[in-house]
Every structure is written in structure tokens, then in C-alpha cells.
Design a protein that fits this description.
14 helices, 13 strands
């Protein structure tokens, strides 16, 4: 066997070989023990065949929190690469018809360890993308629920990834930094000390994943996302949500009331770049990774700057500013730019969209979407 090659599952049992994580776990990991019960699974599962001897088999992916801003788009990208039946979207909410029809969807509550374990085992999952979380502003309004979902749910996922030798992706965020962090730019490794439950839970996730990687060999991967701007999903309670809403308002009412000051600079990214970064990072060989958590960056702008760029296309846009104390305080504690030089060096990260290209693309996409749905365009 070549050095650095991980062998797990039936092959490992036959050869007496284990990856570092599996072997350590057999010896010392205090795992949980639950029996699995049969459940009615998605219609997509009955169409599959499985060849355990095939070394090139596509990954089997489960995405938790899949109906949020990022899950559906990432599933679409992964399904194009690895096949529709190999990517399972999950959430605790009922999916819209077009999402349900597009590929496998299952109910999954990250707080239900036993059910989550069944899904992983019954569907032979090899990659787990953990998107379930309460975002910054929503989390501050319900700290107890945020602690339960963002920390207890995370630990369930970590345990299951370790138990089943999964490649685990857990996103982090600009919110993982705090007022004592370097702000311009914020490097990968520095003082963090966030002041929101969302940020605290993300730092906890970064450190737990890195700990389990070094101690048990867990293939943990984490990207610190900047503010992500998309058209298909409504804002979900984050501090950077104004940068999504302003595009919709520009094409509907022509007026946007911003809850941040006009000079509040934050790092941002087009959702297409976010999805591509996630996929490229998950595909990267472990030997290329010098870190387990990386910053990724694309652009950095203020509400005033993005409004000026939108006015090049829609001169009538009017923006008023009514800073919200909670969100403004959060934004003032975050970096204004990310240093993503390690991601660029280690696995070739490079964004495709700057501010000008992003504004043109999003306005075109939202205009088409509103027209197709029968809404007027301002």
C-alpha cells in the first residue's frame, strides 16, 4: 500500500489495515452504541448498485441543513459531478416541489443522533456537509436554541463522522472573529474571541475538528465563509443579509433601508464562488492541506459602494440607513478583509467574481427570476 493512502471499511477488515482515525477509534475513542432500525428510504435508493471493489467509486454525500442559503446550490453542483443519486439533501423543513423532484431528499434533525446515524449507515455516506446552524442575528435572539443546534448538533456530526470514517465539511464564518482580531486583513491563525453565540460555536467547531483530526485522524475540513450573496434563497438572519436584500429591493420597490452604516466594510462573495470553493476544497488531497480551517476571500465592500455599483444599472435606486444596534455592533467586531493566501497556495483557490461582475450577474438573475414568477421589475 502506498504511503498516505487511507483504507477503510470492508477492505480494511480483510487486509487488517485501518486508517489512522479508524485504528485510534478502535483502541480508544469513547463512541456511542445504538441499534439501527429499518426506515422507509427515498425512492432514489432503489435504483442503485454498489461495488465495494471499485476504487474510483464516487463519494456518497449527505448535506444537513440543506434548505438554507447554500445547500440546494451545492447539491446541484455535486450531483453534476457525482450523479444525482449520490447526493442526499436533508433538513427538518418540507422542501419545495422543485427541490424534492431534483434528487434525493430526507428528513434529518441533527439533534437526533440515532436517526442521523441510520441515514449515514443505510445510505453508505462517505462525505458529510454540515450546514445546519442558526446564524448570527437570529442566534443572538435565541441563544439557548443556537447553543443546542450549533454545538450539540455539531458534536453529533463529529462523532458520526469519526465513527464512520467520513470526510466532514463544516463551514465557519467571518463571525468566528472578534473585536480583538486583526481586521485588515484577518489571517487564518490569530486571536479570534468572537462575541456572538454563532461565532463562539464556530470557533468551537474549528478547534474540535482540528483536535479530532490530530488525535484520531478525522478528515475534517472547514472554510471561513465571508458574507455570501445569492438570489434563490431569502435572507436567513445573518448580519451580511443586507447585501442580498438590496438587490431584490432594487428590482422591486427601488428603495432599500439598510440596517448598517453606509461605511461598514465587510468581506463578501458570490454564491457561485462559495460553492466552487467548497467543492474544490473537498476534492483536494489531504497531502496538500497545511491547515484544517482556511479563510477564503473574493471582495470587500460597504453598503454605499454596492449601492453605487447597482445604480450604474438602476439609477433610480434609493438607499436609506437605519442602523440596527445588534447587527451594527456585530459587524463592527468583524474583519473588513480576509487573508486567504494559504488557500490560494495550498489548493489553488481563486475567485471568479469581483464587485462589478457580481452586481451584473445578480441583477440579471433576479430580473429573470422575478419575470418568470410573474412579478413586476422596477
Amino acid at each position: 500500500m502506498q504511503p498516505g493512502v487511507r483504507v477503510c471499511g470492508p477492505t480494511a477488515a480483510l487486509l487488517g489495515l485501518f486508517c489512522r482515525g479508524c485504528l485510534s477509534r478502535v483502541r480508544s475513542y469513547p463512541g456511542r452504541s445504538f441499534s439501527s432500525l429499518p426506515r422507509q428510504m427515498s425512492k432514489w435508493n432503489s435504483q442503485e448498485t454498489y461495488n465495494p471493489r471499485c476504487p474510483q467509486e464516487n463519494p456518497r454525500v449527505l448535506i444537513t441543513g440543506g434548505l438554507g442559503q447554500l445547500g440546494v446550490g451545492l447539491a446541484q453542483m455535486l450531483r453534476k459531478l457525482y450523479g444525482t443519486e449520490n447526493v442526499i439533501l436533508s433538513d427538518i423543513k418540507k422542501p419545495p416541489p422543485h427541490v424534492f423532484a431534483s434528487g434525493p431528499f430526507v428528513y434529518a434533525d441533527v439533534l437526533d443522533y440515532k436517526h442521523l446515524r441510520e441515514l449515514i449507515v443505510n445510505n453508505r455516506i462517505t462525505w458529510l456537509v454540515h450546514y445546519s446552524a442558526l446564524l448570527s442575528a437570529v442566534g443572538e435572539a435565541n441563544v439557548a436554541l443556537a447553543r443546542k443546534i450549533n454545538i450539540t448538533g455539531l458534536h453529533n456530526v463529529l462523532d458520526l463522522a469519526l465513527e464512520n470514517c467520513l470526510r466532514l465539511f463544516v463551514p465557519s464564518t467571518i463571525g468566528a472573529f472578534g473585536p480583538s482580531s486583526p481586521r485588515d486583513p484577518a489571517p487564518d491563525l490569530c486571536v479570534q474571541r468572537p462575541r456572538t453565540i454563532y461565532g463562539v460555536s464556530k470557533v468551537h467547531g474549528e478547534l474540535m475538528g482540528e483536535y479530532l483530526h490530530h488525535k484520531y485522524g478525522l478528515d475534517f475540513r472547514c472554510l471561513r465563509y465571508p458574507g455570501v450573496i445569492s438570489v434563490n434563497t431569502p435572507p436567513g438572519g445573518g448580519t451580511t443579509d443586507y447585501a442580498v436584500q438590496i438587490f431584490h429591493d432594487a428590482l422591486s420597490t427601488g428603495h432599500h433601508e439598510c440596517y448598517l452604516r453606509p461605511d461598514t466594510r465587510l468581506p463578501m462573495m458570490h454564491i457561485a464562488d462559495c460553492h466552487r470553493a467548497t467543492v474544490e476544497f473537498m476534492q483536494a488531497p489531504e497531502c496538500q492541506l497545511s491547515l484544517r480551517t482556511y479563510n477564503i476571500a473574493a471582495m470587500s465592500f460597504t453598503p454605499e459602494e454596492v449601492a453605487l455599483e447597482i445604480r450604474k444599472h438602476l439609477p433610480h435606486l434609493r438607499v436609506t440607513y437605519n442602523p440596527d444596534t445588534v447587527r451594527q455592533t456585530i459587524a463592527d467586531s468583524w474583519p473588513v478583509r480576509f487573508d486567504d493566501s494559504n488557500a490560494r497556495r495550498d489548493w489553488g483557490w481563486e475567485p471568479a467574481f469581483g464587485l462589478e461582475g457580481m452586481v451584473s450577474d445578480l441583477l440579471c438573475s433576479i430580473r429573470d427570476k422575478r419575470t418568470n414568477e410573474g412579478f413586476t421589475v422596477s
